Amino acid sequence: MSISSLRRSLPMGFVLFFAWSAFAAEMPKLVKQDGRYAFLVDGKPFLILGAQINNSSAWPTSLPEVWPTIEAMHVNTVEAPVYWEQLEPQPGKFDFSNVDQLVKQARDHHVYLVLLWFGTWKNGKMHYVPAWVKTDPTRFPRVIDSHGEPIDVLSANAPANLEADKRAFVALIRHVREIDGDQHTVLLVQVENESGSLGSVRDFSAQAEKQFQAAVPAELLKALHKQPGTWKQVFGADADETFAAYSVSHYINEVAAAGKAEFGVPMYVNVWLKHPVGQVPGLHYPSGGPTHNMLDVWKAAAPAIDMIGPDIYTDESDLYRLALSTYHRPDNPCWVPETGGNDVDGKYFFYALGEGAIGFSPFGIDYTGWTITDAKPPAIHTENYALIGPMNREIARLNFEGKLKTAVEEDGHAQTSIDFGKWQATISFGYPQYDGGRIPPGTKDHHGRALVGQLSADEFLVTGVDTRVEFRPAPSASTHMQILRAEEGRYENDQWKFLRIWNGDQTDFGLNFTHQGKVVRVRLGTY
Ligand code: DGJ
Question: Which mutation among 125, 192, 268, 338 tests ligand 1's pocket best, with the greatest number of atoms within 8 A of CB?
Fold first, then answer.
C-alpha cells in the first residue's frame, strides 16, 4: 500500500511534495552489482535518510517527542532501540509493547524503521541486559580482566550468555515477522550496539583461557591465509584483540543467524571506531568490535551479518572520509548508521553519497531535550534531506549504477572539480561569484556542497548548496561546451516535473545553487 502525504512547507518559501510508502510489499534486501551496492526497498534502490533517536527515547511515553523532529527533518527511516531489559523482564516472559508502538507509530508517520538490538553489548558494556542476568554472574559470566576482576561486560566466551541473548533476539525477530512480515516497515535490524569490551582487552576467565590456549579455528586461518597454531603463535602481539574479535563476531553471528532463521530481514552491526593511531583495545575503544584492524576477522566469522557500519563522530574531514572509505569495501557497502547531528556534520552526507552510501543517520534526533535543546531540527541535515528526499530513488539508482559524484567544500579549497570523462565540472563554493574565472570566495564555515548525476552520455542532474557548477569538455577535447537545455524542475513521487528553462544570467557563468533547494537537469553539446 502506498501513502502520499503533503509535508510541511520549507522555510525557504517553496513547497515540496513528498510521497512515502510506509510499507513495502517485498522484503528489503542488499544487492551487489559490478562491485557496487544498493539497498532495495520494494525491489528498487532506496536511500536511507535516517535519524537515530536518543537511547532512552524508544518508550511509548517518549515517542510524542520523537515524531515532530522526524517530520521536520524529512527523515524517511527512524533508528530506534529495543532494550533486552524491557523485552524480557523475566526469563522467557516477553513484553512486545514497546516494539508494537514503534511499528504502529512509524507507520502512522509514514517512515520506515531500523530496530537496534541493545542486548549483550551496548557501547562495550552490558548495561541493557535484564536484571536477572546482571544479578546472576555464576550463570551468566562476565569478562574477567587480566587482574582476575570481573567487569561490567558479559563474556562472549560463555555459552549461557549466548543462549540467553539468542533466545530473546529470536523472540523479537519472530514477533517482527508476525506483525510486519507482510508490510516491511522494519527495513533493517542492528544486532547489538558497538560491541566489544571496555575494561579488558579480552576475557581472562578460566573458560576463555582454555579457548585462548587452543588452536585457532580452521575457518579463520583459511580466511586470513594463516598457518595453524595457538592464538599467540598465529597473531603474536595482536593475539588478545584478535581472540576477542573472533569471540564477539562468532557470538553475534550466532545471534543473527538464529534471528534470520525466523525472518530474513537484513542485519548489520555498528562500530565504535578505533582512531587510526595510538589507541589501546579495551581502553580507548571496545576490544573485539569490528574496528578497522579486525574487519577481516569479522567478515570471516560473521557471515550472517550483511554489513558493518561505522559510527562516525569527528569534525575532521580527513578522518571522516577515511572511515567512509575503510568500511566501503568490495565485501561491505557504505552505510553510516550513526553520525553527529550538528551542523558541522551536515556536509559529510555529501561525502557519504559520493562514496556510494546506501544510507546515513545522524544521532540524537528527537525533542526529549538530551541532544537537541532548542526544539529545532538540525539545520544542515534538514536542508540535505529536504533536497534529496524527493529524488530518493533517482539518487539511489544513480549511485548503484556508479553515476553519482559529489563535491564538498573544505577550508582553503573553495574550488574543485568533478570528472565524468568526456565532461568535467568545475565546482565553485560561496557567493558572490564572479564572472570570468576568478577564484570564488568560499563560505565562512566551509559548508558548500554539490551533487552531479549522469543521466545519459550528455545529460546531468545537478544540485547543491552555496555552489556554482560549470561544465566543460575534458581538457584533451578540442571542442567547446554549449548548453542545449537547462531545465529546472522538481521530483514528485520520484518523477521529474518540469518547471522552467534556465538561460542567460542563470547559465552563462555556470549553474548556481544557494539555499533554495533547486534542482536542474542539463543537456550539453559541443561546437
Ligand atoms: C554511540 C552509541 O552507539 C549510541 O548509542 C550513543 O551512546 C552515542 N554514541 C552517544 O554519542
Answer: 338
Which residues line ligand 1 at a C-beta cut-off of 6 Å? Answer: 55, 123, 193-194, 311, 338, 363
**Residues 305, 191 contacting (CB under 8 angstroms):** yes
Q: Quote the cell numbers at residue 152.
A: 561490567
Question: What angle is formed at CA 189 by the lines to CA 186 and CA 194, rounded to 5 degrees?
Answer: 145
Residue (of 124, 92, 121) closest to 280 by Cα position:
124
Contact 77, 50 (CB under 8 A): yes
Give the three-state DSSP class for 514: coil
- The full DSSP string for 252-275 is HHHHHHHHHHH----EEEEEEPPP
Residue 18 β-bridge partners:
5
Is pTM beyond 0.90? Reply is yes
The SS3 of residue 457 is coil
Kindly state the helix (H) or strand (E) to which residue 448 belongs, with its residue range: none
User: How many beta carbons lie within 10 A of that of residue 522, not counting itself?
Assistant: 23
The C-alpha cell at 292 is: 578497522
Average per-residue pLDDT in the chain? 95
Listing DSSP states for 152-173 in one string gives EEE-TT-HHHHHHHHHHHHHHH
Phi then psi dihedrals of residue 325, to 5 deg: -75, -30
Look at residue 80 in the predicted model and tell me its pLDDT: 99
Rounded Cα–Cα distance for residues 459 and 423 (Å): 10
The closest residue, in CA terms, to atom 6 on ligand 1 is 55
Query: How remote is the C-alpha of 459 from its chain's centroid?
Result: 29
What are the residues whose beta carbons fall under 8 Å from the beta carbon of 120, sequence distance 6 or more?
84, 126, 129, 154, 156, 161, 165, 192, 195, 251, 255
Condensed to tens digits (0 to 9), the pLDDT of residues 419-432 reads 999 999 999 999 99
Three cell numbers, residue 295: 574487519
Rg (CA), the chain: 24
Mode of pairing for the β-strands spanning 112-122 and 77-83 = parallel
For residue 123, how far is its CA from the centre of ligand 1 (angstroms)? Answer: 7
**DSSP β-bridge partners for residue 343:** none
